[in-house]
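Handout, section B. The chain below has 419 residues.
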Amino acid sequence: MFILYNLLFFIGFILYFPFLWLKGKVHGDFLTRFGWWPAALSADLQAKENIWIHAVSVGEILAVQGFIAQLKERYPRHRIVLSTVTTTGYQLAGSKFKDIKIIFTPLDFNFAAEQYVRRIRPKIYINAETEIWPNLFRALQRAGVPIVVVNGRISDKSLGGYRAIKFFIKKILSWVNIFCMQNQEAADRIIELGALPAKVRVIGNMKFDDVLQPKILAPQDLGLPGGAWLWVAGSTHPGEEEIVLDVLRSLSREFQQLRLVIAPRHVERTDDVLNVVRQKGFSPLKFSQLTQAPWEPNRVLVVDTIGQLRSLYGLAEVVFVGKSLTAQGGQNIIEPAFFGKPVIVGPNMQNFQDITELFKKAGAILQVKDAENLKYELERLLNDPGRRKLMGTAAREVVQKSQGATARTMNVVGEILKV
């Protein structure tokens, strides 16, 4: 079966490579993903006992940020090696962690996976949010490296694909020592796919723990005039910028104090977003070029840097979280909820369905069905300060009651490392 998998993976890579090249994803460190490392990197990694953590991109890295801090404190003799897939994830990790080794994860060719395991020689491999890499898991298992899945979940989309190859996935899952799943639904899904129930634990979602205090921003840092209301549209995807700008135009006459920040999910889209802002008749300004000059009503701030969104959520009067109106899946709503902000999302929150339901039951979030509904609900919120306060308070209470998964996950790691 692995012969067929490797053949299909190779064909898929060849077909996908031109896309990677055109999108600028073939970067200077791309060759390391084949296991072709500089000698200095290999020597550096073999100089210490390593704990290898894999987090695919920005969201997963932010989710394990506090977990990594606790690992460093509890295991000071060990080195943390953090692997990621995306360049934005790599850049964010570099800005967040100054004393750990950050690398790109191997492409799942058997020779690349074996090279990584041989050179890192990890004492444990910790996989965030259930990314299943068959060749890498097999290389780890053959080397006797314990595998732990933390903050585990199986999205609706992933579940369908995994079900189709359950006969193959079941063998790979058997090599995992412990699955720390976010909730009972996630636990049931991984068991359905072949994980042994004795290895599966419902631990909770570390994202509720990992909302660290960001750099504090004051309204004057953004040039906000007194009495201004900040509307933050976070993690937006193509098509959503047009929607929030149209809503801003519709409401700006009634709410002249309203100011909009757009933070696209992928900063590589900054130029596209700036063009959309101009096309809609507004004056765009990059966050990286921000001054304390007065923020005129026609100006829209576009976040073109990584790691600033949390600080902006702290200043918001109301928040819209993207990838929920024009794209599927949704994005993290815990961060604005932590700061006690009323949150609006679209109908497509598939990847955060359980979290969304938790907030909806508490009256802590509004889920709209389309652009017109977004305008209607935002207008109601802006006209009702009491409701904004109630929603924000309820949101923060949900976060506080759901915390503790990081400590429980640390206990699981302690069971394996016994150090």
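Note. The first strand starts at residue 49 and ends at 54. Compare this with the example in section A.
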